[in-house]
Amino acid sequence: MCIGMYFRRQELTPDIMVGIIGAGISGLTLAFHLQEKNIPYLLLEEKDITGGYIKTEIRENYILDIGPNSILADEEIINFFKTLDIENELIEANPNSKARFIYKAGRYRILPDSPPRLLKSNFFSFKTKISILREFFRKTEKVEDETLAQFITRRFNKEVTDYVLNPFVTGIYAGNPEKLLVKLTFPILNDLENKYGSVLKGMIKSGGSGRRKSFNFKKGMATFPKAIAEKLKNLHVNTKVEKVEYLNGQFKVTALSNEQKLSYDFSQLVIATPAFTASSIVKNISPDVSQALSQVEYPPMALVHTIYSKENVKGELNGFGGLNPKIENKFASGSIWTSSVFSNRVPTDQILLTSFVGGSQYYDQYISEDHQIKENITRDFQKDLKIEGTPLMQKIHRWEKAIPQYDKNLQAAYSEIEKLQIKGLYFCAGWYKGISLSDCIKNAMQLAKNISTLKDIHS
Ligand SMILES: Cc1cc2nc3c(=O)[nH]c(=O)nc-3n(C[C@H](O)[C@H](O)[C@H](O)COP(=O)(O)OP(=O)(O)OC[C@H]3O[C@@H](n4cnc5c(N)ncnc54)[C@H](O)[C@@H]3O)c2cc1C
């Protein structure tokens, strides 16, 4: 214990019932929706700033998102933005950015996004085109704990796995499709196969993934958590939860704030932190869950922001960005052509690119020195995107633990959580049943609804 630290029991009114640990987008959304339903809560955040992985750096000449760079929003999420009075801050992704480019045989090629385009384009070999069409008629199978790579190779073929699945999975999960489980990442694939006998048939019959659009905010993604935090009445920042005990149906939470030990009692407790901190928080409640959570992998990831003068760009940057299949042995897993997606990120005579180096398939590249990372990225931009000269600015941000892997270790953690017999304990975070911002928001909204139906929860 630090010198000068003392222990104090928080003078909480008996009203405070729901404790939430962690003010990332999950904890914030949950707190906001509990507040809207008049349910007493207290949100505890270790840092002096909220938002967790959501971070934006704003300077005179640029806006850089250091974590998530876009959010897929449907009507429910847009209504949430409206409630927060930030709908006028929204910017929608440029329509051209729907085009995705994949690196194949020495250059970026547009990925065909419809069956007629697929047949016309030379992105896939003739053999693969036939294999894709055959998916409609391929017999269905039930495979226990199937990985994404196994599933896509079984339903389509290896070329589709290598050149579509691999780069997309790297883009979303920074993960390895040979390890990620279908049932945890894209359970919809299993559902379509089971219900329609074919993924493609199912996609056509079920009408695709619904009407969602990609957004960010004029001043970057951090606008969003900041707007929620400003509306919350019961948020304590600089408060690190160190221990949780479960005694007589109550959660006794011990936290450290400005060198003071604080203690809180809650009847419901929501853990909205990454799995690696959730692991130490639940140690006293369940050593088994704690152990399983400690095994959830979070490979590191470096985000490299590069700004060039527009006159140096000799190629076209008309799309969301370029993804690199692992089989092509590129240095980065890909780049978002950020200023082509959200044009206000840099002055109009400049461009901003965001590259990703790391994840479970690019660890060796991640551990390179900063100057090596910068040189490799710049060299590849020169070669692949025809961008000449030196960048006006290049900056690296490293996440030592970036994205939770939805693999068998996470599956084991879910199994331990399911065995838990503790009423009133919940998990709500990017590692728990949905990694995207929209999943985190939807899961938090649903949890607020579930908690609001509990007896005696209202003040
Ligand atoms: C580099 C990167 C790019 C991404 N890009 C996208 C994207 O473009 N689109 C998208 O939809 N998703 C993206 N994601 C995923 C998405 O950002 C995350 O899944 C999501 O932000 C997780 O939010 P969360 O609230 O669950 O957790 P976190 O953001 O991890 O928040 C947890 C909070 O808990 C706090 N905390 C931890 N321990 C304690 C403690 N002991 N006591 C109190 N507080 C504690 C932390 O300080 C933090 O504020 C990206 C993720 C990364 C890393």
UniProtKB/TrEMBL annotation:
<dbReference type="InterPro" id="IPR050464">
    <property type="entry name" value="Zeta_carotene_desat/Oxidored"/>
</dbReference>
<comment type="pathway">
    <text>Porphyrin-containing compound metabolism; protoheme biosynthesis.</text>
</comment>
<comment type="similarity">
    <text>Belongs to the protoporphyrinogen/coproporphyrinogen oxidase family. Coproporphyrinogen III oxidase subfamily.</text>
</comment>
<comment type="function">
    <text>Involved in coproporphyrin-dependent heme b biosynthesis. Catalyzes the oxidation of coproporphyrinogen III to coproporphyrin III.</text>
</comment>
<dbReference type="GO" id="GO:0004729">
    <property type="term" value="F:oxygen-dependent protoporphyrinogen oxidase activity"/>
</dbReference>
<dbReference type="GO" id="GO:0006783">
    <property type="term" value="P:heme biosynthetic process"/>
</dbReference>
<feature type="domain" description="Amine oxidase">
    <location>
        <begin position="25"/>
        <end position="449"/>
    </location>
</feature>
<feature type="transmembrane region" description="Helical">
    <location>
        <begin position="12"/>
        <end position="34"/>
    </location>
</feature>
<protein>
    <recommendedName>
        <fullName>Coproporphyrinogen III oxidase</fullName>
        <ecNumber>1.3.3.15</ecNumber>
    </recommendedName>
</protein>
<dbReference type="InterPro" id="IPR036188">
    <property type="entry name" value="FAD/NAD-bd_sf"/>
</dbReference>
<dbReference type="Pfam" id="PF01593">
    <property type="entry name" value="Amino_oxidase"/>
</dbReference>
<keyword id="KW-0812">Transmembrane</keyword>
<dbReference type="InterPro" id="IPR002937">
    <property type="entry name" value="Amino_oxidase"/>
</dbReference>
<dbReference type="GO" id="GO:0005737">
    <property type="term" value="C:cytoplasm"/>
</dbReference>
<keyword id="KW-0963">Cytoplasm</keyword>
<keyword id="KW-0472">Membrane</keyword>
<keyword id="KW-0274">FAD</keyword>
<keyword id="KW-0560">Oxidoreductase</keyword>
<dbReference type="InterPro" id="IPR004572">
    <property type="entry name" value="Protoporphyrinogen_oxidase"/>
</dbReference>
<keyword id="KW-1133">Transmembrane helix</keyword>
<keyword id="KW-0350">Heme biosynthesis</keyword>
<keyword id="KW-0285">Flavoprotein</keyword>
